[in-house]
Design goal:
This protein is mostly beta strands. It has two helices and 16 strands.
Length: 219
């Protein structure tokens, strides 16, 4: 009995995570310290919309002028947001059952609505998928979790972690998911929009200067 207990204790000890190094502790402290701040120019937050039971979001282009649109899929139906104004421009509270969530098809897509009716939109969120995390002109988005399980979204122009400069000069903590589960985040393919979605809401940032809609982000 003594030998078995000793072996069990030894196995348990070897399963423990190693302690953080001094460098890791310093980096964690730097990521914990900054408060949420306004995104830098030219980024402008245009929307914060409660969406109960949000499952995922997807990007699309308006057929008239190519501006970014964001489709939201939730347990209460589908919605479509204009990313320039932040306005909800279409709503479907009762989509067809087979298309109500993206997990029914291989490419995780749902049928569009409003001005993008007839177009399928790939959805990232609870069921998988993802978006661009960099743009051609040097912006980067990343999620860090120095205090699990609360995710923080960082926007930077310095190439991403480890962020050698001070907070607010090259990198900015723009969103803290300390109340709901983070579902999806990223740039639109045009690089003109940032979207962050949690299980309870969506936030959108846009920029009216910078790359044209023909430019593309890089993931």
């Amino acid at each position: 009995m003594t030998k078995r207990t000793s072996r069990a204790a030894e196995v348990e000890r070897t399963d423990l995570e190693p302690e953080l190094s001094a460098y890791q502790q310093t980096l964690r402290a730097r990521l914990l310290a900054p408060p949420v701040v306004t995104a830098p120019d030219p980024w402008l937050r245009v929307a914060f919309a409660p969406v109960g039971g949000l499952l995922g979001i997807g990007f699309a282009s308006h057929p008239e002028d190519g501006r970014d649109l964001v489709m939201v899929v939730s347990r209460d139906g589908h919605g479509l947001f204009d990313t320039v104004t932040g306005e909800k421009i279409a709503r479907d509270r009762d989509p067809d059952l087979e298309d109500s969530t993206p997990d029914g098809v291989a490419d995780l897509s749902c049928p569009g609505l409003g001005p993008i009716s007839g177009v399928r939109v790939r959805i990232a969120g609870l069921f998988g998928g993802g978006f661009h995390t960099t743009t051609r002109d040097g912006w980067t988005l990343e999620v860090v979790t120095p205090a699990w399980p609360n995710d923080r979204v960082l926007l930077s122009g310095d190439g991403g972690l480890p962020h050698s400069g001070p907070h607010g000069e090259g990198w900015w903590h723009i969103f803290h998911s300390n109340y709901s589960e983070l579902r999806a985040f990223g740039f639109s393919p045009s690089g003109m929009t940032i979207a962050v979605a949690t299980s309870s809401d969506i936030s959108l940032w846009t920029r009216r200067t910078g790359p044209s809609h023909s430019s593309s982000a890089e993931g």
